[in-house]
Design brief:
Elements lengths: L7 E5 L2 E5 L8 H8 L18 E8 L2 E8 L12 E3 L12 H8 L9 H14 L1 H4 L2 H7 L11 H10 L7 H4 L1 H11 L5 E4 L4 E4 L3 H10 L4 E3 L5 H6 L7 E4 L9 E3 L3 E5 L4 H8 L4 H8 L4 H6 L2 H6 L7 H8 L2 E6 L2 E6 H4 E3 L2 E2 L6 E8 L5 E8 L10 E10 L2 E10 L6 E2 L1 H7 L7 H8 L2 H4 L10 H21 L4 H9 L5
Parallel strand pairs: 1-5, 7-9, 8-9
Antiparallel strand pairs: 1-2, 3-4, 3-5, 6-7, 10-11, 11-16, 12-13, 12-16, 14-15, 17-18, 18-19, 19-20
Helix pairs in contact: 2-6, 17-18
Length: about 500
C-alpha cells in the first residue's frame, strides 16, 4: 500500500491528537478506557443499546459546529478523524460542575451511577442546542431514549434536563465554539487517512475516486458506514476484520441533492440527516424517523449502510421501496442503477460484488395523488428492532386506486414488495371495503414469514394484513390514527 501522508487526527481537550498506529478494530471506548485511562465512560451492553458509553462528537455541518451523542462501544477509533471528542471528564471547569452535572446533582438524578456519565453526555449535546426547544419534555425524552437506567425511574433525570437545557448554552464549549470550528475546518484537509499496511489497516478516504481505487486493490476490505452493525461484528461476534474502510469522509457520499421530482441521498448520510431531507415527503416519515434507533444510532448510522447490509428487518428499505427508490452503485469507474427492491436477492445476499460501492439512493417525491403510510411494529416504542416494518403508497385517480406499492420488512428473508396485493388492488374503488379486503387477502401469496424470538409467523401475517387494512382506511377517510396525529402535531408536522 502506498502510504498516505497523514495519520488519524482529532481534537480532544483543546489539543489535536495524532495517532499513526492502532489496531483497525479498536473502538473509541477501548481507546478512552485502556489507552487514556478515561474510565468515566462506561461499558455496559457493548452493542450500542444501553448508552452507558455515550460520548459527544463535535462535527462541522453546514459550516456550524454541532455536538451529537454517539455510542463509543461500537464507534471505531478511526471514525473520529476530523472530529472533536468530548467525554464526561471534560465537562467540569476545575471544581465547578457543568450545568448539566449540577442539575443532575440537585435533582438526585443518579443512584448507582453506572449509567450517569452516558446520561450526562446525551444531555450535554441537548444543552448545546439550548433554549426553549431543547427544554421541551418530548425533546428530552427523545434525546435520552438510548440511555437506560434501572435505579431512578427517569423522572429526576428528565427534571434535571428541563432545568439545565432551558437557557442558551453558557459553558467553555459554547464560549470557544468558533475557535473549535476553525480547528476542525483545518483538519478537513481533503487528504486520505490510512493507518496500517497492506495486510491490516483502517482507511478513511476523502474522495469517491480514492475509495474506489482502494476497494479495487482490496476487495476483501469491509466497508464501514456508521458501524452500528459492523461494530457488533467486532464486540459480539468477535470477528477478525483486518481491513476496514470508512465511508464517512467521502465528500460525494455525504451529499443530499434536492430536486423538484426526487431527492438523492448519499450512502454516508446519517439517519438524522436523512430524516431532515425526507421529512417533507409525508408526516408518517417523522414517526418512522423518531423510532429508527436512538439519538446515538441516528447520529452515526447511515442510510447506505442500512441498505447495503441487506438485513430483512432494516427499517429504511421498506419505506424507500414503497416510495419507488433507485439504488446507485459504482465499481471502479463503472456505474449502474437498479430498483432498490432488486438489490435484495436472498437472505444474506445482495446484488453487489465485493469491491462495488453503494453511492446513493434516489427517492421520488410523492405526487399530489399519491398517499403514503408507514408503520413499525416492535416490542418497545423506542430503540427496538422491528418485528414487522410496513410501508404503503397508494396512487388515486379520484376514488379509484390507480396503482399501489406495498413493501414489508420482517416478513421474508429480504425486504420485499407484496406483488400479488399490488396487482389485486389496482383498479379497485378505495371505498369498496369488500373488494379491498379481497385484494389484501392475497398477502398470503406474497409472504410466508418465519417464527423467531421477535414474533410468530401467524402474528406477523395478521399484523401485516391489519396494517394494510389500516392504511387503506386512513387514506380513504383522509385521516390518521388519533395518537399518531397528536405525535405529528407535537413534532410540527401537518397531519
Amino acid at each position: 500500500m502506498t502510504r498516505i501522508s497523514r495519520p488519524l487526527r482529532f481534537l480532544h481537550r483543546g489539543q489535536t491528537v495524532t495517532i499513526d498506529r492502532f489496531a483497525p478494530m479498536t473502538t473509541l471506548l477501548d481507546w478512552l478506557r485502556i489507552e487514556k485511562r478515561l474510565t468515566g465512560t462506561k461499558e455496559g451492553c457493548g452493542e450500542g443499546d444501553c448508552g452507558a458509553c455515550t460520548v459527544a462528537l463535535g462535527r462541522l455541518k453546514g459550516g456550524a459546529l454541532v455536538y451529537e451523542p454517539v455510542n463509543a462501544c461500537i464507534l471505531l477509533l478511526g471514525q473520529v478523524d476530523g472530529c472533536e471528542v468530548v467525554t464526561v471528564e471534560d465537562l467540569a471547569d476545575g471544581d465547578a460542575l457543568h450545568p448539566v452535572q449540577g442539575a443532575m446533582v440537585r435533582h438526585h438524578g443518579s443512584q448507582c451511577g453506572f449509567c450517569t456519565p452516558g446520561f450526562v453526555m446525551s444531555l450535554f449535546t441537548l444543552y448545546q442546542e439550548g433554549g426553549a426547544a431543547a427544554a421541551d419534555r418530548d425533546a428530552v425524552l427523545t434525546r435520552i431514549a438510548g440511555n437506560l437506567c434501572r435505579c431512578t425511574g427517569y423522572r429526576p433525570i428528565v427534571e434535571a434536563a428541563l432545568e439545565a437545557c432551558s437557557q442558551p448554552p453558557d459553558d467553555r464549549f459554547s464560549a470557544r465554539r468558533n475557535a473549535t470550528a476553525e480547528v476542525l475546518a483545518a483538519l478537513r484537509d481533503g487528504k486520505d487517512m490510512i493507518v496500517g499496511d497492506e495486510t491490516s489497516f483502517f482507511a478513511a478516504p476523502a474522495s469517491l475516486e480514492s475509495l474506489c481505487r482502494l476497494m479495487t486493490r482490496h476487495p476483501d476490505a469491509v466497508l464501514v458506514g456508521g458501524a452500528t452493525d459492523v461494530g457488533l461484528w467486532i464486540t459480539k461476534q468477535l470477528r477478525s476484520l483486518p481491513k476496514l474502510v470508512h465511508t464517512g469522509r467521502v465528500a460525494e457520499l455525504r451529499q443530499i441533492v434536492e430536486a423538484p421530482e426526487a431527492i438523492s441521498i448519499g450512502a454516508a448520510v446519517t439517519y438524522a440527516e436523512a430524516e431532515h431531507a425526507l421529512a417533507g415527503f409525508d408526516p408518517d416519515v417523522a414517526v418512522w424517523a423518531d423510532r429508527l434507533g436512538s439519538a446515538q444510532v441516528r447520529a452515526t448510522g447511515t442510510l447506505g449502510g442500512n441498505i447495503a447490509n441487506g438485513s430483512p428487518i432494516g427499517d429504511s428499505p421498506p419505506l424507500l421501496i414503497a416510495l419507488g427508490a433507485t439504488l446507485h452503485l459504482r465499481r471502479g469507474a463503472a456505474e449502474r442503477t437498479l430498483p432498490l427492491e432488486d438489490f435484495f436477492l436472498a437472505y444474506g445476499r445482495q446484488d453487489r460484488v465485493a469491491d462495488e460501492i453503494v453511492t446513493h439512493v434516489s427517492v421520488p417525491r410523492p405526487g399530489a395523488s399519491e398517499h403514503l403510510r408507514a408503520f413499525k411494529i416492535a416490542k418497545r416504542n423506542d430503540q427496538d428492532i422491528s418485528s414487522v416494518m410496513g410501508a404503503v403508497k397508494i396512487s388515486l385517480d379520484g376514488r379509484r386506486i390507480r396503482g399501489a406499492r406495498v413493501a414489508f420488512g420482517g416478513m421474508a428473508g429480504v425486504p420485499k414488495r407484496a406483488a400479488a396485493v399490488e396487482a389485486a388492488l389496482a383498479g379497485l374503488d378505495i371505498d369498496d371495503r369488500a373488494a379491498c379486503d379481497g385484494a389484501l387477502a392475497r398477502l398470503a401469496d406474497d409472504f410466508q414469514p418465519m417464527d423467531d424470538h421477535r414474533a410468530s409467523a401467524r402474528y406477523r401475517s395478521l399484523v401485516a394484513l391489519n396494517l394494510l387494512r389500516k392504511a387503506l382506511m386512513e387514506i380513504a377517510s383522509g385521516r390518521r390514527e388519533a395518537t399518531r396525529i397528536a405525535h405529528l402535531r407535537e413534532a410540527g408536522h401537518d397531519a
